[in-house]
UniProtKB/TrEMBL annotation:
Protein name listed in UniProt: Mannosyltransferase
Membership in a protein family: Belongs to the glycosyltransferase 22 family.
GO cellular component: endoplasmic reticulum membrane
Record-listed E.C. numbers: 2.4.1.-
Molecular functions per Gene Ontology: alpha-1,2-mannosyltransferase activity
Region (Disordered) residue spans: 1-35
GO biological process: ERAD pathway; protein N-linked glycosylation
Membrane topology label: Multi-pass membrane protein
Pathway it works in: Protein modification; protein glycosylation
Biased composition (Low complexity): 1-15
Subcellular location: Endoplasmic reticulum membrane
């Protein structure tokens, strides 16, 4: 054997086996500009545009999913702007459970909008919603960009698609609720953590807890702890501490200004629900499976994949551990904690909605790794099939999500549309009285009540809980502590209109039950508008939850959501 041939074989063995100019790695190197070592990831414009369009659609078409959104947030905001609106017992100065600072943030948009649009209060309502959609767009864009820089474009694109189209994110993104605000903060804090800006991540977490929902501190806990460990402890700690103190002081000042006494709504809420043995069970209880059913409705199979994330971590340990595991871990912590509580509501899961998308997208991205043989240089047939299944699974999830969204908007969108008809019936006359019976919980807020209507009253349809009362300027407005409020959900004798004959207009839902509705008396009422409303009790669960072409209309049962006007005495 010659020395030259031995050297040639050693040189061949030492050379990279795939660097032949045609491998994926070689092609990627040729595509990169000189001096650039890593892929840039998704740029800001694409996710901002996509999310912005979808959040604008949400702002303009979203339902009001919870009466708490109306009576604890839209109504007090309406009072701050127009000096009229409904007050709940939580806003009585005796209890002071709700933060006015949270309302003032939204008043920064609602105030100028009310001056611009004048009496067109509905436009003010949608201006605030567009503001909420913008916040959601910005925070989610930062998350998508952070994911693309750390884990690549594919995972980021999967997350972007789910953030845009899953029903849960579509509905929660423009809801005027502290849990939605905490969701924005969770999204931004997670993104900043992935971008290794630990001090900012903790500051945003503090804002989410104090300005949004204090109980969401559990969601922020993993990122906060690891940020303190990884970053400069002093800098990160001071960032979170100073942000917390600053916002707490602002909150106390805002509460003093509105409640007329020194109080801290953040601590009052914690005291009532945690330390004071709060009786939230008075407002309804659900079983342990409630959030799992709800999660499937809002995310379909993406929710199941998100729950399977821990099972896929061993196959992508180098890629996703520990950072993505830290980001996603609140899904399990929050689900476990909230499932143990007796009182459950859909909005309580809002803070983890974006994290569900991240976890599900990571599982889809990891599918091929499940079949990968690390001792083989070639892909197995199963690994190739798994790669081909990724876009199909994502597409199925997105189609099912759109089906859910379409069913919800078309099945339950009548209340807001009916109240918008009020502005077309000024001929009813000034000083008119609008009455609402069992549909009080779908009242969309006083932003939909035109100026010719002087009062909105509840009429007794059998509900025995405590209902909201109008803010009483005589007693002090926001500083008032009316005697008719209590924290036991006991109905007040004063909450219903005694003389139904005083009603000029009536809103009711006619589900065509054996017993007659008030509007069925054609000698007393005329129908001004009527829209179909999905009858949840008589419609099959599958067809009412998801829109299935040619089946949704045929298999579901619909009632009529009506706006009625009392006939003049000479016609009655």
């Amino acid at each position: 054997m010659s020395l030259s041939s031995a050297r040639q074989r050693r040189a061949t063995a030492a050379s990279p086996p795939t660097d032949d100019g045609y491998s994926k790695e070689a092609k990627d190197r040729r595509r990169r500009p000189s001096g650039e070592e890593e892929e840039e990831g998704i740029r800001w414009f694409l996710p901002f545009l996509a999310l912005g369009l979808l959040r604008h659609m949400s702002a303009s078409s979203n339902l009001i999913h919870d009466c708490d959104e109306v009576f604890n947030y839209w109504e007090p905001l309406h009072f701050l702007l127009y000096r009229s609106g409904f007050q709940t017992w939580e806003y009585s100065s005796n209890f002071a459970l709700r933060s006015y600072l949270y309302l003032f943030i939204h008043a920064l948009v609602a105030g100028p909008a009310s001056m611009i649009f004048g009496e067109h209060k509905v436009r003010v309502f949608y201006s605030v919603r567009i503001f909420l959609g913008l916040i959601s767009t910005i925070t989610e864009t930062v998350l998508v960009v952070a994911l693309s820089r750390k884990y690549g474009k594919r995972l980021a694109c999967y997350v972007l698609a789910m953030l845009c189209l899953t029903s849960g994110c579509f509905f929660a993104s423009t809801s005027f609720l502290p849990s939605s605000f905490s969701m924005y903060a969770v999204t931004l804090s997670s993104a900043l953590f992935l971008l290794e800006n630990y001090a900012a991540a903790v500051s945003v977490a503090a804002a989410g807890v104090i300005l949004g929902w204090p109980f969401s501190i559990l969601v922020f806990l993993p990122i906060t702890v690891y940020s303190l460990i990884r970053g400069s402890f002093r800098r990160v700690f001071l960032s979170g501490f100073l942000t917390s103190m600053f916002l707490l002081v602002l909150s106390v000042i805002a509460d003093y200004y509105c409640y007329g006494k020194w109080t801290a709504s953040v601590f009052n809420l914690l005291k009532y629900n945690v330390f004071g043995g709060g009786e939230s069970h008075l407002y309804g209880t659900e079983g342990p499976s409630f959030y799992f059913k709800n999660g499937f409705n809002n995310f379909n199979f993406a929710f199941i994949l998100a729950l399977l994330f821990l099972g896929f971590v061993p196959f992508a340990r180098k890629k996703y551990v520990p950072d993505l595991l830290i980001v996603v871990s609140p899904v399990y912590i929050w689900l476990a904690f909230m499932s143990l509580q007796a009182h459950k509501e859909e909005r309580f899961l809002y803070p983890i909605y974006p994290l569900i998308c991240v976890a599900a997208a990571a599982v889809i991205d990891t599918f091929p790794d499940f079949f990968h043989d690390k001792y083989s240089s070639e892909q197995s047939i199963f690994e190739k099939i798994a790669k081909g299944l990724r876009p199909l699974i994502l597409g199925f999830i997105l189609c099912a999500s759109h089906s859910r969204t379409f069913s919800m908007l078309n099945g339950y969108g009548a209340p807001i549309q009916i109240y918008q008809h009020l502005e077309h019936h000024e001929d009813t006359g000034p000083g008119s009285v609008l009455c609402v019976g069992s549909e009080w919980h779908r009242y969309p807020s006083s932003f939909f009540i035109p100026s010719y209507i002087s009062e909105v009253w509840w009429i007794d349809d059998g509900f025995r809980g405590l209902l909201p009362f109008p803010f009483n300027e005589t007693l002090g407005g926001t500083t008032a502590a009316p005697s008719y409020f209590n924290d036991k959900n006991k109905a007040s004798d004063e909450q219903y209109l005694k003389d139904i004959g005083a009603c000029s207009l009536l809103v009711e839902l006619d589900l065509r039950r054996p017993y007659p509705s008030r509007g069925s008396d054609l000698s007393t009422w005329e129908t001004l508008a009527a829209l179909p409303f999905l009858d949840r009790e008589l419609s099959p669960a599958l067809y009412r939850s998801f829109f299935i072409p040619h089946r949704w209309q045929q298999n579901n049962v619909f009632g009529l959501y009506k706006l009625l006007r009392r006939l003049p005495t000479d016609q009655a």
